[in-house]
Amino acid sequence: MTAPTASEVPAPTLTAAAVPVQPRRPWQPVWRAIVLRSALVPVIVLSPLVALPPGADHRFNVYANGARYLARPWELFGEAVHSVPQYLNLGNFRPLGRMVEWALDTVTFAITDLLGLPANVSLRLVAMVSAILLTLATVVLAESVLSRGRTFAGPPSLVSAVLPFAVGGSFVAAGRTSTTVLFGGLYFLTAALVLLVAAAAARTVGRHRLGPRLGALAVVTGAALAAFNEMAWLALPLAALVALVRARAVLGLSWRQTVGGARFTGLLWAGFLPVAIPVRVIIAGRCAGGTCYSGSDVAPAGMLGALPNRLTSWVPPLMWQRAGEGPYGHTLGPAVLVALVVLLPLVVRFRRDLPRYDSPDRRQAGALAATGIAVLLPAATMGALNEQLQRLAAAGWWGLGWRDSALAGAGGALLTVAVLAWVFARSHHSGRAHRRGTLAGVLLLVVIAAISTSANRDHRAGVAAERPAYVHDRVAQEIADFDRSAAGDGRRCTLREQFRASLPRDRRPGYQPEMRRFDQAVNAASYRLAHRPFCTRGPA
């Protein structure tokens, strides 16, 4: 009998059980739930504002910038550079910030062109996306600070799961200057940029070698922040503070290790200062006579008096009052119940995933609180330096939104969740008490988010009842649904005259600059979408 050859030996059959299977990471679905929550909570809270009429420069910029750069996007960069001397004379720099602002106007107008939505709706959709990015950036910052190992390589922190509820509740239309109402897309993105730069600084703590690519990126990022806008400048002190908090409070590094591992932050400053210092010197010289844009004024003398006002500007009950410009008792109505019904399924998913989260100890909770203060304090200080806000603070306008609102809201959310994490820390409670306390805190945040949703509804209803807002709402609708008939032209010409009538009496006669700006903006939009002037009785 001969032995079988190799070719005659039957190959073993591999069954499904015999195939090696990579163990699935159980925390991946939990991370996906956090991302989904970070998207849905801001959308729910901001949804009542989706048809809010445009105000201030948005009445014109969406049409003028959007129509121009949608047709010729290559002009965007050149115009931002060419306009630098003009804006320096007004007291600000911001070439990169203007590029982003104009790009957002272009995206807004592109949505109107593509989907036929009125520009005010497109504008709010863009702001919602920016608010989602800000919420995600807040989660990234918290995770980067609290992680004792490789960030995002393990189960998410409980803090990351709770933060979307807290951040979402801060998106309140607290007056007409709030970032939730005015330039939301730009300032939500600016705040997200600030938080992400700080998160990058936190993640590089303890690394004594950055490598040439990361080092060059840090220098370029610092220079870009100097050319973005004043709120973006807060990324520099925040990065330094956050790196210090993680090194000392979370990782327990020595002072020598902390300073030695702060190379990323040092390179940020190395790129920032050569741009920022000459710019501020030029602006100080040109604005010495008080002729610059008042919104960029810096008044250090009144800062301390306004600082308490700005430090509390993110507190939801104060913002609810400003949203309706009056007592917020009306806000506690049926809209709150509707918002709660929509938000509660997210709480159910949170409760189901609760055992899978990594619960922070009190040391980590303290680090998170320090991070929240590090975000909140510089933002509030920048707001308190503004002379207009100092006057409003002296007049008792608590909870009023401004450009610092986006960043202050994120800082306030971090501080709020830090308090909840410290009170209900697992290391100081039984498992049942920890779960019940955490769930009670989340339910409280959900109620706050629901009331914020109702407050936004009140703000939109109040603004929509005003005649100028009605005119701009109808203008947006007429541009989106352009009627080429004589009746359509008549309606648009009537709107043009109603816009003139809404101006102050001294600006109605003749062809005043504001009327000229209106014609230029709406004609740019109507020519782009319908190849016709907005009103045949006006200038073509």
Automatic annotation (TrEMBL):
<protein>
    <submittedName>
        <fullName>Uncharacterized protein</fullName>
    </submittedName>
</protein>
<feature type="transmembrane region" description="Helical">
    <location>
        <begin position="405"/>
        <end position="425"/>
    </location>
</feature>
<feature type="transmembrane region" description="Helical">
    <location>
        <begin position="437"/>
        <end position="455"/>
    </location>
</feature>
<feature type="transmembrane region" description="Helical">
    <location>
        <begin position="158"/>
        <end position="175"/>
    </location>
</feature>
<feature type="transmembrane region" description="Helical">
    <location>
        <begin position="328"/>
        <end position="347"/>
    </location>
</feature>
<feature type="transmembrane region" description="Helical">
    <location>
        <begin position="181"/>
        <end position="202"/>
    </location>
</feature>
<keyword id="KW-0812">Transmembrane</keyword>
<feature type="transmembrane region" description="Helical">
    <location>
        <begin position="125"/>
        <end position="146"/>
    </location>
</feature>
<feature type="transmembrane region" description="Helical">
    <location>
        <begin position="264"/>
        <end position="283"/>
    </location>
</feature>
<keyword id="KW-0472">Membrane</keyword>
<keyword id="KW-1133">Transmembrane helix</keyword>
<feature type="transmembrane region" description="Helical">
    <location>
        <begin position="367"/>
        <end position="385"/>
    </location>
</feature>
<feature type="transmembrane region" description="Helical">
    <location>
        <begin position="214"/>
        <end position="244"/>
    </location>
</feature>
